[in-house]
Amino acid sequence: MDPTAPPGAVCALHHESPMRFTCARCGSFACEECRSDGDGSVCRACRARSARRDVRVIPAVTAGFVLAKKTAVGLLPVLLVEGLLRSGVGIARVTFEERHSQPGSPLSALAWRCAAFLACAVIEALIFSATDGAKLLRFQDRLSGGTRNLRQILWEAIRRYPRMAVVMVFSEVTIAFGVMACFVPGILLGTFFGFVEQEVMLADSSVWSSFLNSFALARLVYWRLVALVTTQMVVVALVVLSARVAQAIWSLSASQTELAAAVATAIAGVVVSFLMDAFVTVLYARLRENAASRIPIVLRSHSGDATTPHREAS
């Protein structure tokens, strides 16, 4: 009991618990349950606020660039395959839209476009679950000093493919609906789902736990993560816009413009996705490390039990 506390003082948060100390930062009365780990003079709420400030996005982006540069050569076969597959899916989408959207009303054309957009989201999620997993595992090795070769990484990505495919399909479809609704919901949902892939691949979490943990971690840097997700979407949108500008400069037909936009979007998607995965993985590793030592947050293991966050990605 703090000798300077008035008689009968109770915790500011838990009114049924007697006050044990005064927080050195905010001055609130706090009980033993509210005492933060590591520094007993500060309450857990203040420690959590401090941890949020410690995880900064700009240093994570800088470290992500370095991580991407160090891993790009080793992942070149994966990136080339992903680029070819993205281009194929994009061209198939354009062909599908042209075949089904010409006759009928504008509403029918819009419906076919939305259907093609959703179908491509599902197909890309199923195809790229393995390639994205390989990238994340390579990032993890680089951050933690691992020595797995590309074959071992691909085998590990395939082993976790079913869970990765489920979370990616659900995330992509939900985000696609959000983008079609008003664009902003897609960004907000994409932010909350920002760490689900890292949870499955790097923390070996279950599908349900990966969403819970991603939501809990994303809340700590929510608006900074929104800025990253928005930047990613804006860059891809600018690439598509450049294809429209090319149509006016080189007098391309509508069909040629759509094909050029599909290929340009695929190439930009590979580059932007690779960089974004590196940024988010660095941010995820730092959040996990902070969560383990400072933030009062409960993360879930593969079995669904509450656990102390581990540091395998740090």
Plain-language structure description:
This protein has 314 residues and is mainly α. It has two domains: 1-54; 55-307, no CATH class. The chain has eleven helices and four strands. It has helices at residues 44-54, 57-71, 76-101, 106-144, 150-159, 161-182, 184-192, 196-202, 207-220, 222-250, 254-293; strands spanning 21-22, 29-30, 299-300, 306-307. The protein has a two-stranded antiparallel sheet. It starts with 20 loop residues before the first strand and ends in a 7-residue tail after the last strand.
Q: How would you sum up this structure in a few lines?
A:
The protein has 314 residues and is mostly helical.
Note the main attributes of this structure.
2 domains, two-stranded antiparallel ribbon, 314 residues
Give the SSE string: EEHHHHHHHHHHHEE
Can you list the strand order of the major beta sheet? 1-2
Largest β-sheet summary: 2 strands, antiparallel
The unreliable regions are 293-314
Nearest-angstrom radius of gyration? 23 Å
Total beta strand runs = 4
The structural class is mainly alpha
How many domains would you count in the coordinates?
Answer: 2
Helix percentage range: over 70%
